[in-house]
Amino acid sequence: MSKTAEIFCIGTEVLIGDIVNTNAAYISRRLSETGINVYHHTVCGDNPERIKKCLDIAFDRSDIVVTTGGLGPTYDDITKEIIASKLGLEMYEDKEVLARITSFFDKRGLKMTENNRKQALIPKGAVIFENIHGTADGIALQSGGKTVIMLPGPPREMEPMLENSVIPYLKSFSDHILVSSNVHIFGIGESTVESLLSDLMKSSVNPTVAPYVNAGEVRLRVTASGKTESEAKKLISETEKKISDILGNYVYGIDVPSIEYVLVNKLLSQNKKIAFAESCTGGLISKRLTDVPGASGVFCCGFVTYSNEAKTKMLGVSESTLKAYGAVSVQTACEMASGAMSKSGSDIALSVTGVAGPSGGTEEKPVGTVCIGIAVKGKGARAKKLFLGGHKGNQRDFIRTLTASNAFKTALDELDGIS
Amino acid sequence: MSKTAEIFCIGTEVLIGDIVNTNAAYISRRLSETGINVYHHTVCGDNPERIKKCLDIAFDRSDIVVTTGGLGPTYDDITKEIIASKLGLEMYEDKEVLARITSFFDKRGLKMTENNRKQALIPKGAVIFENIHGTADGIALQSGGKTVIMLPGPPREMEPMLENSVIPYLKSFSDHILVSSNVHIFGIGESTVESLLSDLMKSSVNPTVAPYVNAGEVRLRVTASGKTESEAKKLISETEKKISDILGNYVYGIDVPSIEYVLVNKLLSQNKKIAFAESCTGGLISKRLTDVPGASGVFCCGFVTYSNEAKTKMLGVSESTLKAYGAVSVQTACEMASGAMSKSGSDIALSVTGVAGPSGGTEEKPVGTVCIGIAVKGKGARAKKLFLGGHKGNQRDFIRTLTASNAFKTALDELDGIS
């Protein structure tokens, strides 16, 4: 019988809608993966009376209560104080925590203000989770069969604390272990993935296989339960293999941060350099590649040629081609890629040109029409035309993001020799 | 005495963390601006017992309960049914609603399934809010001094319904209205803003002035209450003027989407074209400028020159300069900007070169050292060196984002003639 949890966010800024409560989603996903059922989310402001009442409700209906926020140094940060008094626990000033807070300020050449001492006050019997990005440590308490875990509000402080300290702490109470992995897929939609894997997914009990879609990419989360971590990992790798056998090259990585990360590392391993010629993406492809630390080892340069004039001037795209076929054409894409490769001296070059919208669409080339070109040393250039539809939310962002991802996948396939 | 509200989201997908509850933030912001105090957010899954209990709690502590989700056609969409039975209201099949649902399917050449009839069942005495993007209409009920409003879960259905129907419905109960505006500031930190405006902010009651910080930018939200919209707006504009008088040029816009948006429109109004030479930002500056629809009217081109070789090859930065001063230097930044302007034929060109980290820092040039150059037709080039510290979270993202924003501000100041 798995435990039930409630995520209780304390912060007026969330209640007035200035901040979206992404913490609740993040914590819920990780707790679910740990085998804990999250049954409620609650948010209330920095108001002692309302916090107390919400805590009473949470303790009444949940085994585990995870709070976020209200651990800061200011007068309205009262989560710790209220929970300690509710559980009848005294607070003491923890020497180690105080030393950590002091050195946090020293390292940054800042003076620690008196109110920061407050953050070293810990309820008796608490387990302390170190905050590697701030001064508000996390705290876990056990009382009357209930577990309460207090985490800081800023995601950059909360997330590593959850991963490094809280999840291991919670797993220590469980008699089985859940392990998850993510299979990253690009080039086919969710429905296609589900139909190709229908037998596998329908029959999946342990491991379970759940699909997630984001920015035109499909991610399959494989979650296995086992008595030991190695037992769970063995189950996962078997299922990963089945998925890869069926989806083949559409799987671009397992537990990788991004498709551009995979591309950078493939280029490094093949000791090749890449260049980009971007029109509709306006620099996004270069930006995403250079989000990957170490990209400098494979990145020659990028040309952001938004106008026809720039395409001609910077890449040597012929005016006759632009005139005959237009900027959004496979012919222009080919010349852009060839130009980028020759001007930069790269081994491989990608080009994109398209209609990202909201305006600029025509009957013949509606918004979402995109051409992706690739030039390869010794192989010349080629290009393909795509129509990127089915956006949710900001269409322009969606088209630009998906165009960049498609370009990355085109390069990956080329490097894998399956083009 | 303004009313208190609770946003109650019903949906298992939110509880397991597959969806972030952006609806709660959106509704909270709009209700706050309407003068309604949102005191609680609650989320629970598609479970009748837990939904009932959460509703009891919500009705007990809130004047207005706004639910999202659970209005669909499937068996687990039960929000309407549970609330109707809780309030002891019978349901009837609404002819108009049914007609609308039927035509919704006809228009799309789809066959209406029998379970969609369920969506035409309305509790007696309800006010109906038409759903222009789907088949799940919204519903408002008044009972025992409480107001309950049921909205569909998908944001693209919920948001227009909230704007077009729910806000006007709620305003009809209110005797005053709140209006907000945002003053956007760049170049000074939150603490400096607060000290410069301390008198204004301390004494601010109507309008209130609240600071928010994001990606190195400070935003002041000015919120005024008035009997009429024009009365509130008058109060706001007076406070906006006071802020601008004190902060002067640090205020780059009021109620603007971004600093790049302001730059694009200033360039358009002065009929000037811009080019970029980017090293550490790796295309982010071009990307952000082209996030603004219409940027093509002012954007010549971008050079992403990550390596020294590219700086020399593409921009004509002299090898001796790179050798003598290094890539991260005001000298290199100047030559990058000059090169970008001459190669592109733009009126103005920005360049950035710096150490974004995580690696690459030295004693002399630690991570966060950034040089920003600007070249202006007829004025030559100049550059400044900055140290961007104090990041929260991902340092590399922070430095790249702040570098881009600083570059945009440099161009804005130049165009404003205050450089």
Question: Can you describe what's shown?
Answer:
Two copies of one chain form a homodimer. Chain A has a six-stranded mixed sheet, sandwiched between helices. In chain A, strands 14-13-15-16-17 form a five-stranded mixed sheet, with helices on both faces. A four-stranded antiparallel sheet of chain A has the order 10-11-9-12, with helices on both faces. Chain A contains 15 helices and 17 strands. In chain A, 40% of the residues lie in helices and 25% in strands. The radius of gyration of chain A is 26 Å and the shape is elongated. With 419 residues, chain A is an alpha/beta fold. The two termini of chain A are 50 Å apart. Chain A folds into three domains: 170 residues, MoaB/Mog-like domain (Molybdenum Cofactor Biosythetic Enzyme, Chain A); 78 residues, 2-Layer Sandwich (Alpha-Beta Plaits); 157 residues, CinA-like (Maf protein, Alpha-Beta Complex). The model of chain A has no long low-confidence stretch (mean pLDDT 92). The interface between A and B is large, with 73 and 73 residues.
